[in-house]
Write a structure and sequence with these properties.
The strands form 7 sheets. Strands 16, 17, 18, 19 and 20 form a 5-stranded antiparallel sheet that branches. The protein has a 4-stranded antiparallel sheet with strand order 3-4-5-6, with no helix packed on it. Strands 7-8-9-10 form a 4-stranded antiparallel sheet, with no helix packed on it. About 20% of the residues lie in helices and about 35% in strands. It has 6 helices and 23 strands. The chain is of the alpha+beta class. The protein has helices at about 5-15, 30-40, 45-65, 70-80, 85-100, 330-335; strands at about 20, 25-30, 130-135, 140-145, 150-155, 160-165, 170-175, 180-185, 190-195, 200-205, 215-220, 225-230, 230-235, 240-250, 255, 275-280, 285, 290-295, 300-310, 315-320, 340-350, 355-360, 365-370. It is globular. The mean pLDDT is about 80.
Length: about 375
């Protein structure tokens, strides 16, 4: 089937109400009933292979949307990990034979394979990603970006639903109501904005901070919110090294630094020798205040680590990682707007695990997970 035949087939599916139009332009999305029917046509022993094939296509969707000519390279490359499965081998051979032009073929597994944790990459952002918030049912994600916008995503389909615009500065933090209908964004322009997620409509602007609005939290019903213009914060010294400070406030408007020296200084010769920057909001535990932070070395390779402070005296450092717990490994974490960067900025607890949302190479958003450990 050539391109014109594929387009005509897609149009027939839409006209017969068997599918709906989907982004990017020209693509379609089958209804769940059709997908269930297609799955049922596969022999039981091959249905696991079908899930892997669908997973490979999902992982590649952001690449194919930009360049459809990479379809064969992406599909074959991601399924190399599962060579030897008859159904997958048949598909990759067929795809290779049907390629209409030269394509890059991996000899060894190099792309992230389906079934190994990564679900999807959301990549419409053109600037740094600062924060991610997820609706209670996990279906909607909103992403704060340095380009002054917030993007709303359908997690299941990977479709960008809308862009929330209006801030005069970068959007630094986000919060969602429990039902995912109301969003609250905090910005460098010293304001908070309340949004209707479904329509993208700006409901109101909250002002009062004398400094950049850095952090925000909202009740599940979306009726109450708290914000801060600093907490554990980043400060830059005259020699261009970034270290972490601590400030306090009684009214969330006027702030005082709690220490005369950095509460978490850089460490020459280590992975955080140049930059020490706070990540998501701290996690309060019985053993202390757990802060995920991001460290950059002299070559500005960014990695992630943990610091624990005394819950009765947040100035007192109890523990600090000697080695990073997370580092750039995947290709899309190493190559992008800023190379060799993983920068954790969002955390959500779901059951007995934490999901950590992070920027990769200042271009992509990824998610890593860790179990909840209780002593």
């Amino acid at each position: 089937m050539d391109e014109s035949e594929a387009v005509e087939t897609a149009e027939q599916f839409v006209r017969l109400s068997l599918a709906q139009r989907h982004q990017p332009e020209g693509s379609i999305l089958l209804h769940d009933l059709q997908l269930d029917y297609l799955r049922a046509q596969w022999p039981p022993e091959d249905r696991n292979a079908l899930q892997l094939i669908l997973g490979a296509m999902r992982l590649s969707s952001h690449v194919i949307a930009e360049d459809p000519c990479q379809f064969v390279s992406q599909l074959v490359g991601r399924l190399l990990h599962y060579q030897g499965k008859a159904a997958i081998d048949r598909l990759t051979r067929s795809a290779a034979r049907g390629a209409q032009q030269p394509w890059l073929r991996s000899l060894r597994p190099a792309l992230h394979a389906p079934g190994l944790g990564l679900f999807r990459t959301l990549s419409a952002h053109r600037n740094s990603v600062y924060r991610v918030a997820l609706s209670g049912d996990g279906r909607i994600a909103i992403v704060a970006c340095s380009d002054r916008t917030t993007k709303v995503w359908d997690v299941g389909s990977g479709q960008e639903l809308r862009t929330l615009s209006g801030h005069g500065g970068g959007v630094k933090d986000l919060a969602l109501s429990g039902d995912g209908r109301i969003a609250l964004s905090a910005s460098d322009d010293k304001t908070l904005t309340v949004w209707d997620v479904g329509s993208g409509r700006e409901l109101r602007i909250l002002s009062g901070h004398s400094g950049d609005a850095k952090s925000v939290a909202m009740s599940l019903d979306g009726q109450t919110a708290v914000s801060a213009s600093s907490e554990y914060f980043l400060g830059t010294t005259p020699d261009k090294n970034d270290q972490m400070g601590l400030a306090y406030s009684t009214d969330l408007v006027h702030w005082t630094e709690a220490t005369k020296t950095p509460v978490l200084p850089r460490r020459p010769g280590q992975f955080d020798s140049r930059v020490v920057e706070p990540g998501p909001s701290p996690i309060l535990t019985p053993d202390g205040i757990v802060l995920i932070y991001n460290g950059g070395d002299d070559k500005l390779v960014y990695r992630t680590a943990i610091a624990i402070f005394d819950r009765n005296d947040p100035r007192k450092l109890l523990y600090r990682s000697e080695q990073p717990i997370f580092a750039p490994e995947k290709e899309w974490e190493k190559v992008g707007q800023v190379p060799n960067v993983v920068f954790v900025e969002g955390v959500v607890r779901r059951g007995e695990r934490y999901l950590f949302y992070y920027g990769g190479a200042d271009k992509y958003v990824g998610v890593a997970e860790a179990p909840v450990v209780s002593h």
